[in-house]
Design a protein that fits this description.
elongated, 8 helices, Alpha-Beta Plaits, 11 strands, 7-stranded antiparallel beta sheet, 2 domains
């Protein structure tokens, strides 16, 4: 599991509201908030600000307030968009045309509890057992992409074709959204991928080459510690997507790939945004992957 040691903890609501008011002059003390899942299992937050104008300053202040209220760990790993929406000022008289969404939202002070409850509900619904079968009967989804020509490619930016057993995860990663493995698995596993340079130019030869690596990976992961969840072919690189839960299986993979003579320009990289600068070289003298 990724460490949360570097993240700032949530602030008490009174302190967070006071800080934002002192910094921006905007009073969110009577605000309400609503959290809902969007694409990529990211939570979008709508903050309803009584008497607000809907300007950029309010939007920036709302985003900073949400960060303070729920803490950096949840914000960085789980939050997509934060919107600030004007709401009726309220008062002793009932506002007949008040937004139904605003009235159904919860007080801003309990946003942290709302976010935690939403995450718990999502994790309870994650279909972990579906990753256990890598046979021919597994459900696979295919994508075709159109990469821009370049001398080299970051991450999987040169993908032409890919197939995956976790389509929502794959789309989130390819869109470049903030990525956290915990949004797609409750087991603590990490989603990673093998990226390897290839000298093959014909599609048939590239598929045959990748098949050798696939066979090795499936044999190695059959001993436990991970699953193969996707395949890809890029302009320059080949890809095999993995869900790994045991560091020992990574060591087995590296040794086996070296024995098969995989390119020196090959690495295991991490999908998580927090680990995007990290990599495991297949060979001790493998060069660093291109980072742009």
């Amino acid at each position: 599991m990724l460490s949360s040691a570097r993240f700032d903890a949530p602030l008490p609501s009174a302190l967070a509201l006071s800080q934002i008011h002192g910094k921006t002059g905007i009073d969110f003390s009577r605000s309400r908030a609503r959290a809902g899942f969007a694409r990529g299992h990211l939570l979008d937050i709508v903050v309803y600000l009584p008497g607000g104008n809907g300007n950029r300053q309010e939007a920036a202040a709302a985003e900073e307030l949400v960060r303070l209220l729920i803490g950096e760990e949840l914000f960085e790993r789980w939050i997509g968009a934060v919107l600030a929406t004007p709401a009726a000022r309220g008062g002793p008289l009932t506002v007949l045309n008040e937004s139904t969404e605003a009235s159904a939202a919860l007080p801003i002070e309990i946003l942290l509890d709302s976010v935690r409850a939403a995450i718990t509900g999502l994790k309870q619904g994650l279909a972990e057992p579906s990753l256990g079968n890598t046979g021919e009967t597994a459900d696979w989804f295919a994508f075709e992409l159109s990469p821009e020509p370049a001398a080299d490619y970051v991450a999987q930016d040169d993908l032409l074709f890919c197939s995956t057993r976790v389509p929502e995860l794959k789309k989130s990663f390819l869109r470049g959204e903030p990525f956290f493995s915990g949004r797609f698995t409750a087991s603590g596993a990490l989603f990673t991928y093998l990226k390897y340079d290839t000298a093959e130019t014909r599609t048939e030869a590239r598929v045959a080459e990748r098949s050798r690596f696939e066979e090795l990976i499936q044999q190695s992961l059959a001993l436990g510690g991970g699953q193969m969840v996707g395949l890809g072919m890029g302009v320059r690189y080949g890809y095999i997507d993995l869900c790994l839960s045991d560091p020992d299986c990574v060591r087995r993979l590296l040794a086996g790939l070296r024995a098969l003579g995989i390119s020196k320009r090959s690495w295991v990289l991490f999908c998580d945004t927090e680990l995007e600068a990290e990599y495991l070289p297949i060979y001790p003298d493998s060069p660093a992957p291109f980072c742009g």
